[in-house]
Predict the 3D structure of the following.
Amino acid sequence: MPGISQRYVVSGVVRAADSGEALVGASVAVPALHAGSITDDDGRYTLNLPEGRHTLQIAYLGYQPDSQRIYISKANLYLDLKVHRSSKVLQEVQVETNTLLQQLNDPRMSIERLTSREAKLLPSLFGEVDLIKTLQLKPGVKSGGEGSSGMYVRGGGPDQNLVLLDGAVVYNPSHLFGFFSVFNPDAVKSVELFKGGFPAQFGGRLSSVLDVDMTEGNNERIHTSGGLGLISSRLSVDGPIAKDKASFILSGRRTYADVFTRIINKASEGKEDYNPIPDYYFYDLNGKLTYTLGENDAIYLSGYFGRDFFTFNDTDFKIGFDWGNSIASLRWRHKYNTRLYANTTLSATSYHYTIKNDLDLFSFHLTSNIKDYSLKTDYDLFLEGGHSIRFGAAATYHRFTVGRLNFDAEDSRLSFAAGNNYKAAEFGAYASDDYVVNARLSVNYGLRLSGFSSGGHTYSGLEPRVAAKYNLTESASLKASFASMRQYLHLVSSSGASLPTDIWYPSTPVVTPQRSQQVALGISKLLGKGQYLFTNEVYYKWMHHQIDFREGANLFVNDSLENEFLFGKGRSYGNEVYLEKIKGRTTGWVGYTLSWTERKFDAINDGNWFPTRYDRRHDLSVVVLHRLNKRLSFTGTFVYSTGEAFSLPIARYAMQDVEGKDATVVPIYTERNGFRLASYHRLDLGAVLQLRPRHGEANLTFSVYNAYNRRNPYFVYFEQQKDKTDGRITSFQAKQVSLFPTIPSVTYNFKF
C-alpha cells in the first residue's frame, strides 16, 4: 500500500466536447485504486493518487464513457477532460449520473443525486416534470400528501430544508399551492440532496440541503428546446455571446388553465345560479450568463423570477392572491494555482405573498415577505498527503414583514394597519478536510461556527461534522456520519402542509434557535458483477426547541405572535434500504424506509410523545425504466406508504343556549394524531417515443398518473346527519376527500 507522503493531487474540469459546458456530477475514477471523484458545481474534480501510471475513467449521463492514461511523478497534475455525447438514441434512459463503483467509494453518505434528464423520463402528474417529486421516490424523502411537491426528510418539517438555486436561498419552492415545484427542468443541470452527513459549508437548517445547479449556455451554437404539455408550456434558448468565452441561457414556463376558465366564464355570463370558476396561473423565468475572463477566472450571473396568481371575481366579492420568489446571484470563480481555488458569491432573494379582498365598500390587503442579502466566499485547497481542505465564511442580512394588514373603507372613515417588521443578521464560518488516509479509509471532518443577531440578542454555537468510509472489500464499504445543525429561522404554519401563507419568523430573545444532532451508519455492496448497488442506512436524529402552537392560536395579524408558540423536542429514527441498477435495457431502483417521527410538548397530548402528520411507518417506491428499442421506452413507478397521522374526536357533547332552542356541538379530542388515514398507494405508467423530425430532436412523452384509479385520501371531514322531522343533529359521518383519479397526459418535447 502506498505511503501517505507519496500521494499527489490530480485536478481539473470535465467538459462537454461539443459545447464546452462544465459537467456537474460526472464521475472521474481510478477503479484499480478504488479512488474517484464526482465533479462539483464548476465541473471540477479532485483525486489524491500515488506516484506512477494510472488509468482515469470518465462517465456522465448521455455521454460516451472515456478513459485516459496519466503519469504522476513527484508533482501535482492539472488535467482538463472532455467527453463526447453518445450517438445511441435514448441512451439517457440509463440512470447513470455516476458509476456504481464511484458511489460505493464516495466517503459521503446520505446523498441523492439527480439530473433533469432522469426526471423527464418518469411519468408525471399532468405531464409536468418535477425534480422534487422525483426525489420523493428516494428512501428517507416523503411528500406532504397527494400530489404535493413538499419534502419531509428524515422526520424534518418543510422549513427544515435548505433549498439553494445557484447558491441563493429559495424560501418557497412550490407552485400551485404546493402541487408543483418552481424548478423548470429545462433550466436545471443537476440536483444534490443531502439527508445527513452535511458538509461544513452548509448551515441554517436541520434536516436536509437541496443544492440545485442551473445549466449553462452552449459555447458553440444557438440551441432552442421546449415542450407543450397538458397544463403548461416551456421554452429555452441558449448559445454563445462570444464563442468559447461567454454564453447565455433563458428559460420560461407558463400554465394556461386560466385561458380556458376565462372562456368558460365569459360564455356563462348572465346565466342564473352560475358560479364563476376561479382564475389561476403561474409562470417562472430563469436566466444565466457565463463569462470566462481568462484561464483562471470566470463570472456567473444567475436569476430566477416566478409568480402564482389566483383571483375570484363575483358581483359583490373579489379576492386576489399572488405569491412568488425573486432571486439573483453573482459568482466569481478564481484559480490561484492548481492547489487553490476560490468562489465568491453575492446574492439577493425575496419571497412575498399578498392577499387582496374587496367586499362592497370595504377592502383589505394582507402581506408577508422576507428579503435576504448575502455574501459568501469558499476556498478549496488541495495538499499532498491526501488532504483536500475547504474553508470559508458567509454573512446574511434578513428583513421580515410578518402579517402586515391594511384595512380601508371606501369613504376613508375607517382605516387601520397592523403587523410587525424585523431585521436580523446571520453569519457563519467553517473549515473541513477530506482526508484520504489510505486506499481503504477516507474521512471528512469539519467544524462550523454559526451565529444570529436579532432584537438586540445574539445566538451562536459550534456545529461539528464528521463522515468516514472504510472499504471492507473491493465490492463493499462501511460508512458512518455525525452532524450537528442549528436553525435560526422558523416557518409559522397553521397546517401540516406548506402553504404560500406560511410566515418565516426569526429567532428572538423569546424564540430560541432549533438544534439537531444526527448519526447514521450504512453499508454499501456491489452485486451481480457490479450491475447493482445495494445500500442500507440506519439513522437517529434528535431535535430540540421545536415549535408548535397553542390550541386556537391566531397566526394572522397578531402583533404578539410569540405568545402563541409552544416549544418542545423531537426525534426521528429509521432504516433505509436501496437497490439500484443503472446498466442494461432495464434500469431503475427500489427504495424502502421503515421510520418513526415524533414530537413532545408539555402542553400537548398530556406531555406524551405523539407522531407528526408526516410520520410514515412504511414507505416503498419502485421505479422501472425499460428500453424496448432505439425509439421506444417504457417507464413505471409504484409507491406505497402508511396513512397520514391525524386527530379525530372520540365523542361530542351538545351545549344549549339559555332558551333551550339552539345547541352547539363540541367535539372531544384526546390523543394528538392518534388515528391514521387509509394507506396511500399509486401506480404511474409512461412511455417515451422518439420522433424523427427533419431538424433537431423531438419526442412524445405519454403518462398515466394513478393508473388503477386509487382514491387516495387527501383529508377527512365530518358531515352532520340530521333528523328529517325536527332537524336535530343525530350523528356525524366521516367522509374522505380524494384529489386525483386516473389522469392521462401527453407532452411534446423538442430541441434544435
